[in-house]
Each structure stands twice: as C-alpha cells, then as structure tokens.
Design brief:
Elements (H helix, E strand, L loop, with lengths): L20 E7 L8 E7 L2 E7 L12 H4 L1 H5 L9 E3 L10 E3 L2 H18 L4 E5 L5 H11 L4 E2 L7 H11 L7 E3 L6 E5 L7 H13 L3 E5 L12 E3 L6 H14 L5 H7 L5 E3 L27 E4 L4 E4 L13 E2 L9 E4 H8 L5 H8 L3 H17 L2 E3 L3 E2 L5 E2 L2 E3 L2 E5 L1 H4 L4 H14 L9 E3 L70 H7 L7 E5 L11 H9 L11 E6 L11 E4 L8 E3 L13 E5 L12 H11 L17 H7 L31 H7 L3 E3 L14 H9 L16 H11 L12 H7 L22 E6 L24 E4 H6 L7 E5 L4 E9 L6 E5 L16 H4 L11 E4 L2 E4 L14 E6 L29
Helix pairs in contact: 4-16, 5-13, 7-10, 7-11, 7-13, 10-11, 20-21
The structure holds iron/sulfur cluster.
Length: 961
C-alpha cells in the first residue's frame, strides 16, 4: 500500500536479499530553509532522500531541490582534492596541480601567521550562502581582521536592518507572518527565495481556512500564482505605497493609538529647537536610564497635567499630536513634539494619487487596500485568553489579535532605497498594532533584540592589533557616528567600506565591493582573500566581466593586485578557476554542521529551535568540511579561543569544538542549545555535554524548546519573556524593546552632516548624502541609479528571481534539476514585446547603459508591462560546473548581471551601487531597453565566457550531457 510520510523505506525492486538498508536523518542544504530530511541508504549507498515527517520546519514536506540532493552527491563538478595554481599561469585558466592537505595547511599557516603578526586587516574572509556565520565570524575576530562578512550585503540586509532598527526583529529566520490566525495576508516583494517549504505549508493551510491573500509584486510567479489578487507594482516603488497607506490610515484615524502610545516611541517628545538636540528625544537627566546603551528616560506630553512627564510613568495620558513647550526643569522653554506628530507631517503629502504616479497602482486600489488592512486589523480583532505581564508590571488577561500579516524579502531589499522602504513597512505594521501579536508579525528567538542589538563594529585602529583578537566583533549595529569603522583620519577601516560614511549602517558588510576595492587599493590593498562558497566571478557580482579582469590584474612588478586568493567550494564554479589555492569542501551530506542560536537558528514562533547536520556519507576523495579547515587553521595559528593556557591545541575537531566551546568562561552558552549540562538535562544554558551530538542524532537533529503561552506574544514588552531571554543570553538586558517609529539614531547621523552635533562628521562630499537619506522617519526616494540614467531611453525595469527548482547558481551541476531549468528566457509582457517587435521564443537584445546581453524572449501576462525579468544564475560560463561545451546553460542561458553596475558616479564622486544607509546591493535598480536580434545573428547568448575543468573532478563531462 502507498504510504505517505511512512518511516519505512519505499519498495526497492533492485535490493538484494542480504542488502543492508539504513535511514539516516540530517538537515537539507539544497537551499537555505533547513528542512529535516531522511537519507535512505542501501549497502551504504544513498538511494533516495525524503522529508522527515517529525521535523518542525517541513513536517515531511520535501521540494524538488531537496529530493534531488542525491544528484548533488553524484555531481561531476565535485572537486576532490586541494589544488594549487601552477606557477606562472594566469588566474582563470584553470591550471592547477593537486597538493596534499598538509601542504595546503602549511601554505596557509605560513602566510596567515605572517599577516596576523604584522597587519591583520590584510587578510579578508568573505563567505557566501553558508550557515555558520557564528564560526566564521569568530574565526575573523580571533584572527584580528575586521574584513569579514557573509553574503548579506548583496542579499537582504535592508530587510534585516530596516526591521531590526525599527521593531527589533525581522522577517524569515527571525520572524514572520502568523498565517495560522491571520485573515488577510499581504505579500510584497517576495519571490520564492526564503522560507520555502514552511511558507508553502502555511499558505496552503491559510488558503484552505478561507484567508485572503494579496500579492504585490511586478511578477506573478511562485507564491503569487495562488494569490487571490495580484497587484503589479513598479520595482523600487514599494516605499511609496507604504507612505500612501500610512497617509490613509492616519487620515482616517484607523491606527492602534493605545498600542503606539504604550509600546512605541510615538508619544515620546522630540526637540524641535535648532542645535545639537534638534530632532533628538529629550532625556530626563535625573531618572534611571535602565539601559545605558539606549536609555529610556525620555518624556511624553501628559494630557491630564498638560506637562512633560517621564515616558513610563504610571497614570499619565500621553498624547500623539501637537506641539508643546517644556516647563520648569532641565529643558525649560524647549519646543517639543511627540514623534507621531512628525510622522503625521511626513505622510501629509504622500496621498494615494502621489503614490499612484510612482508605483503604477491606481489610487483607488491603494485607498481600498488601506481600508482592507484597517478593517481586518480592527474589525476582526480578537482576544486570546493568554495572561501576560508587561515590562511595567501591569498584568493583562489576554493578548489582542490583529489578523493582518505581511511578508516581504528581497524585492524590497535589493534597491538602493530598500532600508527606508523596509522602515516604511515596519512602521505601517506598527500603526496596525500587528507586532508580535496573534495573526500579525511574530518574532522567533533569539529575536526580538534591542533596537538595534548592542554589538558594535571596530571603530578605531586601536581595535585592530597584530596577533590579537579584534576588540569588538567584525559586524555590529552602529547607533551614532562614533561607532563607525573609521581610522583617525576618517578613512574606512574595512576593505568593503562597511560602516564608513558611504554606508554607515552596513550591518552585513559589502561583499560585492571587496574585489574591486582591493584591486583599486581603495581604501587599501590586502594580501590574502579567502572566499567560501561564493561565485564572485559570476552571478554574485554586479559587474561580472570587470571583476573577472580584476581578479587577474597585476601591479607593474608583476604581482597580482590581490596577491593570494583562496577559494573553498565543493564544486567547480566559475570562481574556482581564479583561485591560487582551492580547498575542496564536502557536500551537506558529508559533514557536521550547526544552525545555532548564536547565529541563524530555525526557531519557531513558540520558542527557540536549533538543528544540526550529521554526516550520512563519508567525504568524497579528499574533501574536507570548511568547518574543519577553520578549526585546523585556528588551532595552528594558536588563536586564544582555540588554545589552552599551556599553549596546546584546545579542540580535536569541529564536533569537539561545538560540544565544548562556550561564549565565556563557564557561561553555559555554546553553539547548541539542546541537551546541555553534564547529563544532557538542561536546555539553552548549561555545562557542555560530551553526548550532545548523539542526543541531536536521536532527536531528528533538532532541539525544540516550547515556551509557555504567556511568553509567546508581545515579546518586546513581555516581562516574563524578557527575563527568560536575558537569563538564557538571548539578550544582554531585559528592558522593554520600544518600536522606533522615529529613529533618533538616524537623526544623529543627520545632525553630524549639518555640523550641529559635536563629534565625528562626514567628509564634505558626503554631507548632503547623509543628510538626505538619514531621515529619522521613513520616506521614499527614487533608486540612486535613476539619477544617472536617461529614463526616456531606458524605460523598463529589469529584475531577477531565484528559480524555485534551484538555489542561485548551485544546481546546474545537478542532473535532475537541469531537466527543469537548463536555460532561461527573458520574460516580457506580451504587449511590451510586440511593441518592440519581439516574437515569443525569439532571440533579442536587452541593454542597459552599462552593457548588453543577447537572450531569448518569452511572452508573459504574469509580468507588469513596465518590467522584464528572468531567473537568476541559470546562465553559466562554457564548461563551468562540469557542463559540456555546448550545454544549454552557456549557449542559451544568460546572466542579467552583465547589465548591472557595481559603482555609480553621483555628484562627482564614485560609490557602490548600493543603499546609502546599509550598503545593500541595488540589484533591482537597473533600467533597460529591448530590441529584436537580427536574423543574421548567431542563435546563442552573448557574451560568451569560458571556464576550465580542474584536476580531480569526479566524472567525465559526458555524465552531465
Ligand atoms: S525547501 Fe530547501 S531545505 Fe527544504 S527541502 Fe527544499 S531545498 Fe531542502
């Protein structure tokens, strides 16, 4: 009988009588969602993979990618041994000699110890879509280099930072829509990128329960295909829509005033007098600040006494509107207004008509949407009988549900206006009172955190010293100009210029600028660049052809401008060819790994959850997990955290490190939260347990902690939860996390730009930029690229999406998934295509001011007429990923990256084509035009690029024909 979600292996017709079959559980890594999977083995050979029904994330569901993991294992593109580029060969030519791991470690140890002892910032470590940033970040910090980040700067840092600087949490890993209780779900700017299987499961239940799903997106694919209504929007204009929705909600007085007064800074008083305090909250110098980092001792205007009162004082009646003068006391005579008054003024002109002209959504539809979300939030309000106590000691009998949920990701993020757009969404959600309430947005541990979290990046040369760990973590959350990573001359401390005046709140770094900056020597040159799992010479860079040249460019003395390039990857990507040293990584089925509470766990709404990978197969050839490489290097380089007091190696290997490492002496906090304590009896906090891996293995590779219901909602202000989070090191403090409708942090940067604030100031050429974009209230501005584009010539927007069946560039070496996508089309609205004389399936040109690409067209009604789009990273260099020379991927597939610029010259100076606040890459800002290809032109994509096979690849290319 056919059994769904059975724990038994499926019928195996070719199984021999004496075959040994086994099921091993681990965690998928065919995308970033981290579903639980079961690997079915026959006589030690992997025969198929299915979803683990006992796993909280996917409950047995598996997608095409997950099930195709077996073909990743059998990929002919696997690299199987360490490789050293042959002396005298050019980078990119793929000429390597195999070497032993001992030799590889000797080379690295010698080179890195020399850098560490002299100028540690000459070593840069940047990683792609890995899931171990707590380890890689620790490695960089222990090394002493600030030059570390993962891929967030070119992925979705605007989403993370925009939300975290506003509500102390973010979408996807750290929070999401409560579709179990929502009645209306608005998804905006989301492809099927993040949260794949969990979102599909939740959407299916939501729709079956009668929920209404509105998708706002230039393209109707993926989740949007099952939306009740699709509202096309012009890319980069979502912020204008949020401004208009806020305008409508405030105009109609349909906002949650009690929620805003109590739980946000809406009622807190902002100084309106010109000078150093202008636009900042006023503080009561005599009251206890509670949190010295981000003090709470501000004022509200009390309606009863008509005076300013401490903002948390019981019995007051704060107002949201008006303009006042401070009475007797330290601020006597100062003009003040509640922050909400400033928000009201900010949106006074952002009418639906104004937004309609920008977004292409009819004004009437915007008005109706505002009413729909308000009527659902307030008209369908409900109470859950869950008692809880707030931070001020008041007991509540229930939590209020506001059943409007939103979800957004890279569609909002990947624009140079994405931070303020995301702030707009977070403030809109706050007006509706849907933050950590049933039916709205809900946090996932370790969030919510302080607005913003307390970690700060290195902020002076003194934080970076030879043979010494960094004084501060390489990545953090600035709250004032003095937190920027600048030397005493005001120059960037980091190679990617993160946390400089160009991108002050670059919380995830700017990996997309590292190669160009290093080659230009701007702000300085480096010696060794180590890249893990990132295809920087192809789809992960904004100027593919130039970066490929940069990687090979030399100084007059013949030395490469980036002298040593280490690439660690499991597969022969386009990037591997450029390496000096290639370190062969394992697949996810061959290694231990952790999805840690110190990093990006898989938490659920009801409590912290972390998970692991446990090898189900031996590593192929000489492949070694990058985790083991880092532990080995850290031990050889004698980093303090990896060395005993006697100078001996502290950890045998990665599993041993995970079991025994603690964040501080006897802190009881380590990478894994489950089965801590000597006998595994403790959760979240406790002494190391030598049997911890075994317990994870016995429990579906997951540790799930269910919090009591009274800790599951209103967590920004829930005393019980905040005490719990402090006790278990999810936060350092247990003070309330107030929503920042108005960001005085942004205002501090603005004041610095005007010279009104004492302390650090931006250089002259960046003053206007800082002033303009660091608005303490959300606002919409056109993407920066518009400023340097002839919009009459390049009339269309062009965007990409990650295909559902592949994770970015990872899967063109996967024989099963190639059958779904082996090449991509440019999807063009039928009317637009016909207007340009482009037939369905015809060859055509797409051109921006930066470059052009020849590709094939596909007519579509599921795209806004002003936008064209394609799947990301299907196009490959010829022969890359072990594809044959004439594979569809290189002959018909194409990369939109060739049309995108990495840098823009704005107002006389050149900066990254990124958000001026966070440094998020502006992938989706490019403007293009179309033309049919001539009949005489070759029927293959252009440009064509060649890659090379490297020694030690497992199978002949023919296997992947
Ligand atoms: S959604 Fe991602 S993690 Fe889950 S099964 Fe599919 S590929 Fe694997």
């Amino acid at each position: 009988m056919f059994k769904i979600f059975s724990t038994d292996p499926v019928h195996d017709p070719i199984k021999k009588q004496d075959s040994v079959t086994e099921i091993k559980k681990t965690t998928c890594y065919m995308c970033a969602c981290r579903c639980g999977i079961r690997a079915h083995l026959r006589d030690g050979e992997l025969v198929y993979i299915d979803g683990n029904p006992e796993h909280p994330i996917n409950q047995g569901v598996i997608c095409a990618k997950g099930a195709s993991g077996i073909m990743k294992q059998k990929s002919p593109a696997r690299i199987t041994q360490p490789l050293l580029r042959k002396a005298g060969s050019n980078r990119g030519d793929g000429e390597f000699e195999p070497i032993s791991w001992d030799r590889a470690f000797e080379i690295l140890t010698k080179r890195l110890s020399n850098i560490r002892a002299t100028d540690p910032k000459k070593f840069a470590l940047f990683t792609g879509r890995d899931q171990m940033q707590a380890l890689t970040g620790l490695f960089a910090r222990q090394f002493g280099t600030p030059n570390y980040a993962a891929h967030g700067g070119f992925c979705s840092v605007n989403m993370a930072a925009g939300m975290i600087y506003t509500i102390g949490g973010s979408f996807w890993e750290f929070g999401g829509p409560d579709l179990e209780r929502a009645k209306l779900f608005v998804m905006i700017g989301t492809a099927e990128d993040h949260h794949s299987n969990p979102m599909k499961i939740a959407l299916s239940k939501f729709k079956r329960a009668g929920g209404r799903f509105i998708s706002i997106n230039p393209v109707r694919t993926g989740y949007s295909a099952i939306a009740d209504e699709w509202i096309p929007i012009k890319p980069g204009t979502d912020g204008a829509l949020f401004m208009a929705l806020m305008h409508e909600l405030i105009r109609l007085e349909k906002f949650d005033a009690p929620f805003l007064k109590r739980f946000s800074n809406s009622a807190q008083l902002v100084c309106m007098d010109s000078g150093a305090e202008e636009g900042l909250f006023l503080y009561d110098p005599d009251s206890d600040p509670i949190n010295l980092d981000l003090p709470h001792n501000k004022y509200i205007w009390d309606e009863k006494t008509q005076s300013a009162q401490p903002c948390f004082k019981q019995g007051t009646s704060p107002v949201l509107l008006g303009e006042y003068t401070m009475g007797p006391g330290p601020h006597q005579g100062k003009k003040v207004v509640p922050a909400f008054e400033l928000l009201k003024r900010q949106v006074s002109e952002t009418t639906p008509e104004w937004a309609s002209a920008i977004t292409s959504i009819p004004a009437e539809r915007i008005r109706k949407l505002a009413l729909e979300i308000a009527d659902t939030a307030f008209g369908q309000e409900f109470e859950l009988p869950i008692p809880w106590t707030d931070s001020w000691g008041e007991k509540h009998d229930s939590v209020t549900g506001r059943p409007v949920a939103f979800h957004a990701m890279r569609g909002l993020s990947a624009h140079s206006n994405g931070f303020q757009t995301t702030r707009g969404l977070a403030v809109l959600m706050s007006l509706l009172g849907t933050i950590d309430r049933p039916g709205g947005f809900r946090h996932k541990a370790p969030y919510p955190r302080q607005v913003p979290p307390n970690a700060k990046p290195p902020s002076s040369e003194n934080d970076i010293k030879p043979n010494t760990p960094l004084a501060k973590p390489p990545l953090g959350w600035p709250t004032q100009p003095e937190d920027l990573a600048l030397d005493s001359q005001g120059n960037p401390l980091r190679i990617d210029k993160a946390y400089s005046w160009e991108h002050p709140l670059a919380a995830h770094g700017l990996m997309h600028n590292v190669i160009t900056n290093a080659v230009k020597g701007d702000p300085y040159s480096i010696d060794t660049l180590m890249i893990f799992m990132a295809n920087m010479s192809w789809n992960s860079t904004m100027n593919t052809m130039e970066v490929r040249e940069h990687l090979n460019s030399k100084n007059v003395d013949g030395e490469f401008k980036i002298p040593f390039l280490v690439v660690c990857d499991a597969f022969q990507s386009e990037m591997v060819d450029f390496a000096d040293l290639v370190l062969p990584d394992t697949t996810y089925l061959e290694r231990h790994d952790v999805m840690s509470m110190l990093d990006r766990p898989i938490s659920e709404f009801d409590g912290p959850v972390d998970s692991v990978r446990i090898p189900v197969l031996e590593p192929l050839g000489e492949c070694k997990p990058f985790q083991e490489v880092l532990i080995e290097l850290a031990s050889r380089l004698k980093f303090p955290a990896f060395t005993t007091a006697e100078g001996e190696r502290k950890f045998k290997d990665y599993p041993d490190f995970i079991t025994r490492f603690q964040t501080g002496p006897d802190s009881g906090i380590g990478f894994l939260s489950g089965w801590r304590g000597k006998d595994g009896e403790k959760s979240l906090k406790g002494e190391p347990n030598p049997n911890q891996w075994q317990k994870y293995e016995e429990n579906n590779c997951v540790h799930q902690y269910h919090m009591p219901p009274e800790h599951q909602y209103m967590r920004n202000w829930n005393k019980g939860y905040l005490d719990f989070s402090k006790e278990n090191a999810l936060r350092q403090k247990n003070d309330p996390i107030m929503i920042a409708i108005y960001s005085d942090i942004l205002q501090r940067f603005r004041l610095a730009a005007t010279g009104k604030r004492p302390g650090a100031q931006p250089p002259a050429h960046l003053k206007d930029r800082i002033y303009k974009y660091f608005d303490p209230l959300p606002f919409w501005y056109p993407p920066l690229e518009d400023e340097v584009t002839d919009l009459n010539k390049f009339t269309l927007n062009a965007i990409t999406q990650r295909p559902m069946a592949m994770y970015h560039s990872w899967d063109s070496q996967n024989a099963w998934l190639r059958q779904i996508h082996s090449h991509n089309y440019l999807y063009v609205n039928t009317a637009t295509a016909l207007e340009h004389g482009i037939a369905d399936g015809a060859w055509m040109w797409i051109e921006s001011q930066w470059g052009k690409v020849k590709c094939m067209a596909r007519h579509s009604e599921a795209v806004d007429p002003g936008t064209v789009w394609t799947w990301n990273a299907i196009g490959k260099a010829e022969s890359a990923w072990s594809l044959t020379d004439n594979a569809d991927e290189s002959k018909k597939g194409f990369l939109l990256n060739h049309l995108i610029a990495e840098e823009l010259t704005l107002g006389g100076f050149t900066v990254s084509n990124s958000d001026p606040i966070t440094g998020q890459a502006g992938w989706y800002d490019v403007r293009v035009r179309l033309a049919p290809a001539g009949e005489e032109e070759s029927q293959e994509t252009w440009p064509q690029v060649k890659a090379y096979e490297v020694p030690g690849m497992t199978l002949k290319k023919e296997a992947n024909k």
